[in-house]
Recover the amino acids of this structure.
């Protein structure tokens, strides 16, 4: 448990350099990077690229040794103010035993990602006691105005994040399901944020990097999972006492998790994710809300892990406030 | 602790702990398999219930299981089908009752989690073998008979292809060779991972770890195998053996090596005697093995030899 208040990295400022690495999978199309680099330049940021970001070994960007070398090189480099993984995919958790968590603690830097990068966000928060950011990978910072503005507010400004707003409605016709704040269980809570991709949280169970949820406001999301699989992962967390110990749960919009739309084995009989959430999470005695845009959709928040937040879920309203900034001046 | 060996006329409870059986016919065929084993099938009351993706509500599936556990006239509980949803029952099973009345528990796929939990909590040998709806070939039928009803010594030889008279090519692959013994533990990889970090996580000290899976993505399997590495399970195990990974594939990933590559790399690095190709976990032709019983792994002879029975012939 990170007892002491977590260390905040310094705010990322124009003129500074970001280190782009690929600790999980590489970009399949190398040209996707150009778009990202142009946008970074337009923010006044300079960049350094990891040596192996286009390497391939199975679905990883190079061997474990190559990926860990890029991570440590970026973290050691005094010019690099933020370390931004280019994408998730698979393979980040493989690096954990080789990561120098002391090096990371001694050189606090902004570190942002989601999906497979969850493994690093949780491990660095818990082992280096550093605030990490669940938000877009470098590839997706510029995917939508919502993602971009939230990213910029979270890591390029020391203003407290405050009340979290949903994306503006694009149209009054056929709103997207789920709505951003579907009430699963009412209540009010306050605690430091932790969480990430459910699949990654499962992957770390039983290991030295297992998520600590006690007293935390837990956010979860996943992509391309069948409802039965979401159910199974929630049941595991219940068996392990992880959900009961959280003060509240935000289950994010989870893309591609309707029956038959995942890349998983499809069953003839199905419940919906919403029904699974209602069955498993409605009687924990903590507030639970479903739908916040914090996952694999093209509109996503940047959430500082380790920073206090409060969630108020009533029958008619839901407020979610992050009390502080995740970075210091 | 071993359950009493099954004998003709014993009554067997049939349960669906997660997914509903595919059809009423699947229940009837499964009951016929049990009859052909010389046993008497007793289907659970809720076996054809439907609740979302489940064979009935948690409380009803649990009631079927706990009723069989408490019934002295029931000698064994066989899982009828795999699927998903057994996990939610694990914390509510009447383990004390199982400890007092040891029975034969048989299943595979997600039901591996049940077998491992009973083994962990009660110290009872449980049986990894085909769910009844998968018994459609002589191999799987005879496998159940050998493991649960006979005094035959259990030895599993890796699958091979017969290319003509006297020409047999083994499908085995051994990332690191060696001969080791240990307590056989494991089952479906996804199911094993789903109890990691819970009170039902098995002990990996001194085990020969067995793994298989069905219809899963290779990158997900790679993830779960890595969990075992991070948890220290691979380092603790004396050896690691693999059954079938039927219907598993890349499915959407543009680049992924084979399971033998991905798992083998780690086992080679850890110098862990290991063997791919055991005739277990195949869709329709799986063998049956006891979990919690000592065996010897000999990678050069491509076999796993059990050093003891899984059932107690004297009780």
């Amino acid at each position: 448990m990170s007892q002491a208040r977590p260390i905040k990295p310094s705010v990322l400022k124009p003129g500074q350099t970001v280190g782009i690495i690929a600790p999980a999978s590489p970009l399949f199309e190398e040209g996707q990077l150009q778009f990202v680099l142009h946008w970074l330049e337009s923010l006044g940021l300079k960049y350094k690229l990891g040596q192996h970001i286009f390497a391939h070994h199975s679905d990883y960007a190079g061997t474990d040794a190559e990926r860990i070398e890029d991570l440590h090189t970026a973290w050691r480099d005094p010019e690099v103010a933020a370390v931004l993984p280019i994408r998730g995919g698979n393979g980040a958790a493989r690096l954990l035993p080789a990561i120098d968590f002391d090096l990371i603690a001694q050189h606090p830097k902004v570190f942002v990602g989601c999906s497979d990068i969850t493994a690093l966000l949780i491990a660095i928060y818990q082992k280096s006691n550093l605030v990490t950011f669940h938000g877009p990978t470098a590839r997706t910072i510029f995917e939508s105005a919502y993602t971009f503005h939230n990213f910029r507010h979270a890591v390029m400004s020391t203003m407290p994040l405050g009340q979290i707003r949903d994306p503006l409605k694009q149209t009054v016709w056929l709103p997207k399901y789920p709505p951003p704040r579907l009430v699963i269980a009412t209540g009010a809570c306050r605690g430091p944020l932790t969480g990430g991709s459910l699949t990654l949280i499962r992957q770390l169970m039983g290991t030295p990097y297992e998520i600590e949820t006690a007293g935390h406001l837990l956010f979860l999301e996943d992509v391309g999972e069948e409802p039965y699989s979401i159910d199974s992962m929630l049941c595991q967390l219940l068996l392990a006492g992880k959900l009961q110990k959280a003060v509240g749960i935000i289950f994010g919009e989870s893309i591609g998790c309707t029956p038959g739309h995942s890349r998983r084995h499809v069953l003839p009989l199905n419940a919906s994710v919403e029904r699974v959430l209602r069955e498993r999470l409605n009687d924990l005695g903590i507030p639970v809300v479903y739908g916040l845009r914090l996952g694999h959709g093209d509109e996503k928040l940047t959430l500082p892990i380790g920073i206090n937040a409060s969630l108020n879920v009533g029958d008619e309203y839901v407020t979610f406030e992050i009390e502080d900034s995740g970075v210091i001046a | 602790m071993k359950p009493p060996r099954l004998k003709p006329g014993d009554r067997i409870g049939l349960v669906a702990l997660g997914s509903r059986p595919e059809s009423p016919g699947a229940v009837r065929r499964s009951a016929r398999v049990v009859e052909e084993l010389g046993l008497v099938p007793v289907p659970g009351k809720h076996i054809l219930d439907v609740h979302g993706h489940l064979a009935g509500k948690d409380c009803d599936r649990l009631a079927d299981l706990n009723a069989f556990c408490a019934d002295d006239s029931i000698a064994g509980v066989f899982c009828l089908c795999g699927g998903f949803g057994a996990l939610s029952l694990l914390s509510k099973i009447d383990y004390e009752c199982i400890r007092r009345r040891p029975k034969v528990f048989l299943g595979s796929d997600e039901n591996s989690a049940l077998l491992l939990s009973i083994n962990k909590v009660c110290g009872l040998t449980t049986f990894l073998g085909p769910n009844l709806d998968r018994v459609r070939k002589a191999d799987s039928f005879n496998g159940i008979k050998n493991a649960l009803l006979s005094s035959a010594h259990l030895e599993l030889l890796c699958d091979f292809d017969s290319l003509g008279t006297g020409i047999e090519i083994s499908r085995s692959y051994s990332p690191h060779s060696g001969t080791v013994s240990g307590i056989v533990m494991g089952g479906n990889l996804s199911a094993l991972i789903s109890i990691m970090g819970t009170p039902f996580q098995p002990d990996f000290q001194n085990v020969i770890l067995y793994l298989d899976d069905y219809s899963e993505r290779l990158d997900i399997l790679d993830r779960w195998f890595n969990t075992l590495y991070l948890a220290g399970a691979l380092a603790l195990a004396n050896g690691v053996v693999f059954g079938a990974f039927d219907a598993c594939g890349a499915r959407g990933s543009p680049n992924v090596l084979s399971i033998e590559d991905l798992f083998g790399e780690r086992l080679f690095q850890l110098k862990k005697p290991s063997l791919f190709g055991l005739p277990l976990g195949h869709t329709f032709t799986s063998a049956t093995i006891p979990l919690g019983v000592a065996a010897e792994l000999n990678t050069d002879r491509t076999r796993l030899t059990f050093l003891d029975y899984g059932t107690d012939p004297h009780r």
Remarks:
- The first helix of chain A runs from residue 32 to 42.
- Chain A touches chain B through 44 residues (CB under 8 Å).
- Chain A has a mean pLDDT of 95.
